[in-house]
Amino acid sequence: MHVPDGFFNAPVSIAAGAFAATGLGVCLRGARRELDDRTAPMAGLVAAFIFAVQMLNFPVAAGTSGHLLGGTLAAVLVGPYTAVLCVAVVLLVQGFFFADGGLTALGVNITLMAIVTTVVGYAVFRLIVRSAPRSRTAVSVAAFAGAAVSVPVAAMGFTALFWVGGTAPIDVSSVAIAMGGVHVLIGLGEGVITALTVSSVLAVRPDLVYGARGLKAPLVLRTAGGQSTEVTPEAAPEPARSAWPLLAGGALVAVLLAGVVSFYASSSPDGLEKVASDKGLNTHQESHPLGGSPLAGYGGKAVGDQRLAVGVAGVAGVGITVVAGGAIFYAVRRRGRVADRARA
Question: What 3-state DSSP class applies to 94?
């Protein structure tokens, strides 16, 4: 759902940019409460994983594909404020290094793909988790539902924005039906990827899943005389465990997905591209100003072999995202420590 340049007029692009900047400012402050010494590197890995999986377009209908947006996945793993920053980092890397998503449309893309998907997906997730019995299965099911709902809501957000400030005339009802229909299918794929990823992390390190905090039932200690005492998980914490084995394994998976599996992704246009072509939304689409850069289009123009080119571009993208995201999250964590000491 990467919106290219030329889809929106200047007032909507500016307004969306201002909204996105405000939202990112709020999330930078909120992420200080979510990030600690273990979750900061975890957030960098989540951003890199989202970048890698977004390269894996999957077919959803004849001539149409979809890919992960990642807002709900990131929110469940590292928290909603940090999740918005994770997806925003991915969008910035894609826009400036890979010419994927317009530069003038960055505000629109961050608003729809980072903020809307995270807010909607995490709200649905929390609603289900609070209503269901506490279990890992409930967390995975809630993650699926949140992700599945967030994608068509973001698609409807695009339709509304285009109705207000698109550069081409549209029949809003037909565009809404087309965008909604294809993105419901993409949302199901998003839900499956999100649930599988969350359940995999839960299986090995549930303590690192933000959305599963407080999942453990109280420990009941019984004496020989029959008396019982409840000990909450906070009162009897587990010994600290290093997160580096999981981080190393996750980084390897991201590299393999972006560097090897991505070559076999569907070449069909994604949902937005297909609807834009069919409904004439792209009549004023502009070329990306960085379209001539070496990594533009994930083609790795400096490499002759196409298979190798895609792999090089994917691995480079994972590396750039890890470095950029890791630097941001560590900086936010340090600011949080300074604020904590100031309050103490």
Answer: helix
